[in-house]
Each structure stands twice: as structure tokens, then as C-alpha cells.
Amino acid sequence: MTTEERESYKPMRKIWKLIAADFDKQKDGPYLFPGNASDEILSKFPPTIIIESEFDMFITEACRLATRLRRAGRLLELVIFPGNTHSSLFLPWCESGTMLKDAKEKISKEYVYGTIDMK
Asked: What gap in Å lies between CA 43 and CA 35, rounded to an integer?
């Protein structure tokens, strides 16, 4: 467990309880935590791109899920933004926010529309 994961556990548990209809019943299921999905379920995932921050509280789980999706032939890309934290990618005034916006545009062009212009 990373420092970020350890520090965010209690607040995230509160959020998970708000999201889940019944956290105690769902905590081991794939709907709340996709990393808990069986290999059979993962093999039915659509082609998947995972975007993560180096110092995100979910980095360990995201990398584990990416590995399992790769084995199932469902991972298109695992993109990790170095030096960033969980929310920094979503702050439009930060350089990392601009990087995320650019990355999403390139991913859309390459994987959704089938063309990419790397200007």
C-alpha cells in the first residue's frame, strides 16, 4: 500500500459507502471495484484505456487492473502522468490539466476516430 493509498483510505471508504447501494455486500464485487472482476468478465470489457497519475491513491489498483486487462487482450493503453496527484489532472489551470486534455484529444483521434495528427 502506498502512502497516498494509506492516507486516503478513510475518506475514500466514506465515498464508496455513498456510491454503493450496500457497501458491505458490494465491497468485493466488480461494479464498485473493477479490479475484483473475474477473468471472464474482464475478457468481455471493451477495449480500455486507463489514465492514471503517478502519485494517485489508486495507482496500485489501476496498474493491477491494467495488467489483468492486458492479459485478457482488452487493454489499449495505460497512461501514467509522472509527478501528478489524484486531482491535479483535472485542474485546467495546471500544466498537467492541459496535458490530460491533450492526451484525451489524441486518444479520441487515434482510437475513436481512427486518425491521429501529431502536429
From this structure: 13
Distance from C-alpha of 85 to C-alpha of 17, rounded to nearest angstrom: 23
Helix (H) or strand (E) holding 81: strand 75-85
Cell of 45: 470489457
Retrieve residue 90's grid coordinates. 483535472
Q: Is 52 within 8 Å of 85 (Cβ atoms)?
A: no
The 10s digit of each residue's pLDDT in 50-109 is: 988 888 888 888 999 999 999 999 998 899 988 888 777 677 777 777 777 788 888 878
Paired strand residues for 118? none
Query: How much is the CA Rg of the chain, to the nearest whole Å?
Result: 16
pLDDT tens per residue, range 4-58: 677 777 888 888 888 888 988 988 888 888 889 999 999 999 999 998 888 888 8
Grid coordinates of 80 = 501514467
Give the burial class of 63: count Cβ atoms within 10 A of its Cβ; 0-12 exposed, 13-18 middle, 19 or more buried: middle
| Cβ-contact 58, 91 below 8 angstroms | no
